[in-house]
Specification:
There is one protein chain. This protein is an all-alpha fold. 81% of the residues lie in helices and 0% in strands. It is built from 21 helices and no strands. Helix 2 runs antiparallel to helix 3 and helix 3 packs antiparallel against helix 4.
Length: 331
């Protein structure tokens, strides 16, 4: 039954609403051609209503006819302005234009229309769309900047300044090279060498980690990481880096020397022994065993107790593991 408000509507608006409802039904069924026909009929009955333009634009969007959708939304805004439509409806048209431009991967235009939408009516959804679109623009600009040939030129400039001992200028050129070719592991290794010379070890370590992530077979990255960790007095971390290097080349002199030095440092430093041992899952499991905890406590208070426990092969195996890792010596 029609409401009193609907009964008082002019005949053309009644017919327009009826056509719109028919269009909505067809739209829900994804019968887009029928929906378009009904929305256009509604528009003929009442060309002053922005909603019908928005409805037609929605169909075009579903049909992936994004240019048609944009044109229809622009008409919607024009009609809405002329007839003082609700600002939410105008915002809706701007948002749909923005979404169409996103589909066309024209993110700068999309950004413009999301901003227009928010100037009409602010919603969290559109704010999120704008934020994501701005990220897309930055990514497009980053990708557009990539140029391996220019990266090589900047790398050569960096190499020259490095040889001259001008490490700060070398960093600038290696950084530009990275921007031009961010997937080249060697560039991060080169910049890490500069940071090491400048005593910026945290930055150097970060570059080494990126280098090793990009190319796990690039031995220089692991060696450089090991050296930085040594300077930072992280012997166990350095030892792991040198181990990785030796997996690539077991005869590499730098890696072998670094490994020997770190092994001595680790075994001479109780904290390092404990730290390294606690990264071993087998050691962790042994120390979590309540029975072993009791045995270790007994050994601490009575060193002779170990002889009795060694008669049990399972316990003897666990004690041997703890001896090898150095845990018992510092327990």
């Amino acid at each position: 039954m029609a409401s009193k408000e609907e009964e008082n509507l002019p005949e053309n608006k009644k017919l327009a609403r009826k056509s719109k409802e028919q269009g909505n039904e067809a739209y829900k069924k994804k019968d887009f051609e029928t929906a378009l026909d009904r929305y256009r009929a509604a528009l003929q009955h009442d060309p002053t209503d922005i909603t019908f333009h928005n409805n037609i634009a929605a169909v075009y969007f579903e049909q992936k006819e994004y240019q048609k959708c944009i044109a229809e939304c622009e008409k919607a805004v024009e009609v809405g302005r002329e007839n003082r439509a609700d600002y939410k409806l105008i915002a809706k048209a701007f948002t749909r234009i923005g979404n169409s431009y996103r589909k066309l991967e024209d993110y700068k235009s999309a950004k413009t229309y999301f901003e227009k939408s928010l100037s009409e009516y602010r919603t969290p959804d559109v704010k999120a769309l704008l934020s994501d679109t701005e990220k897309q623009i930055k990514e497009q600009e980053r990708l557009a900047y990539i140029d391996p040939a220019r990266a090589e030129e900047e790398k050569e400039k960096g190499n020259q300044f490095f040889k001259q001992g001008d490490y700060s200028t070398a960093v600038k050129h290696y950084t530009e090279a990275i921007h031009r070719n961010p997937d080249d592991a060697k560039l991060y290794s080169n910049r890490a060498a500069c940071y090491t010379k400048l005593a910026a070890f945290d930055l150097g370590l970060k570059d080494c980690e990126m280098c090793c992530k990009l190319d796990e077979t690039f031995i220089k990255g692991w060696i450089r990481k090991g050296k930085i960790l040594q300077v930072m007095q992280n012997s166990s971390g350095a030892l792991t880096a040198y181990q990785k290097a030796l997996e690539i080349d077991p005869n590499n002199a730098e890696a072998l020397e670094g490994y020997r030095t770190c092994t001595m440092a680790v075994h001479s430093d109780p904290k390092e022994v404990w730290k390294k041992a606690m990264h071993d899952p087998e050691v962790q499991q042994i120390l979590k065993d309540p029975a072993m905890r009791v045995i270790l406590d007994q050994m601490q208070s009575d060193p002779k107790a170990v002889q009795e426990h060694l008669k049990n092969p399972e316990v003897a195996s666990k004690i041997q593991k703890l001896l090898e890792s150095g845990i018992i010596q510092i327990y």
